[in-house]
Write a structure and sequence with these properties.
Keywords: Cell membrane, Membrane, Transmembrane, Transmembrane helix. The chain has 298 residues and is mainly alpha-helical. It contains twelve helices and no strands. It has one domain. The two termini are 17 Å apart.
Length: 298
């Protein structure tokens, strides 16, 4: 069971890492809020095509949970991305990468405060090692650069984004027991509806860039892999091994994003990339090994 979770979570973070590359490639071809709305519109169209019969079967369970599912989709899919995109207009990608690596800590804390779910020493050590690996990547191999980082309004927005996704992850335990197609259809609809005001603001303020051919390719990629596949895989991963253990894999997102930048954008590969990857994977392995032993003992 846990091996299936590992495969799903690795693919999740790979697709999310690719989402960062898509965001870089989108500059000048489609604006962020319009991209968010169009990706969820396309994702919803796909889910309607493949999942509507299943939703009809699950409707007696879905209907009383519509408000909760709408809140999940709004917080985890729309508001998180809106806060993340906005944060990047005020602060650096380095700050955002390091701050995002702290997300598992907030999930650990929320699970402890709400459900008295403890963590082992191995999980704490593994989490710390993986965060240092992310910081090493973000600082381009020189951790002394971190002392020069400025904290500003963008960092506060990123903190809000982290809290939103941490809350979304913890709240997944209350997701109704329905087929993944029904879950993704409901959450995609919520994400589309809640993203419309952001796209409307972008259009009303003449900031919008409507997609050209590259823009539409990016919309298609983000709709199919980061939106549908990755979110469905993440939800399933949380179901299989729990929020605390699954959230640690999020620290692979900046690592995969960096490696994909090297492959796709032609950026240089350095020794610190290999060291950071080894640290993040080693930290996740240590934390997961300890977490699995803890779960087996309970």
């Amino acid at each position: 069971m846990f091996r299936n979770a590992y495969v799903l979570l690795l693919l999740t973070t790979l697709f999310w890492g690719g989402n960062a590359i898509a965001g870089k490639l989108a500059v000048g071809h489609i604006t962020p809020m319009l991209l968010t709305t169009l990706r969820w519109a396309m994702a919803l169209a796909i889910m309607v095509a493949i999942g509507l019969p299943q939703l009809r079967r699950d409707w007696p369970v879905v209907r009383p949970n519509l408000l909760f599912l709408f809140a999940l989709g709004t917080a985890g899919f729309t508001l998180f991305n809106a806060a993340l995109y906005s944060a990047l207009t005020f602060t650096t990608a380095i700050n955002v990468s390091i701050e995002q690596a702290g997300m598992p800590m907030f999930i650990f804390l929320a699970n402890f405060l709400l459900y008295r779910m403890g963590v082992s020493l191995g999980q704490i050590v593994g989490f710390t090692i993986s965060v240092v690996g992310v910081a090493l990547t973000a600082a381009h191999g020189d951790l002394t650069r971190l002392a020069q980082l400025d904290v500003n309004f963008g960092d506060a927005l990123m903190l809000a984004a982290i809290l939103l996704y941490a809350g979304y992850t913890v709240a997944l335990r209350y997701k109704p027991a329905i087929h993944w197609k029904s879950v993704m259809l409901a959450l995609s609809a919520a994400a589309l509806v809640s993203s419309l005001p952001f796209a409307a603001w972008e259009i009303a303020t003449d900031r919008a860039i409507w997609p050209d051919m590259r823009g539409w390719v990016i919309v298609a990629y983000t709709a199919i892999l980061p939106s549908i596949a990755a979110q469905a895989f993440y939800i399933r991963g949380v179901e299989l091994i729990g929020a605390n253990r699954a959230s640690l894999f999020i620290n692979l997102v900046p690592i995969f994003g960096t490696l994909l930048s090297i492959v796709i954008l032609g950026e240089d590969f350095h020794l610190y990339h290999a060291v950071a990857l080894a640290m993040v994977l080693g930290g996740i392995w240590l934390a997961e090994h300890s977490g699995r032993k803890r779960a087996a003992a309970q």
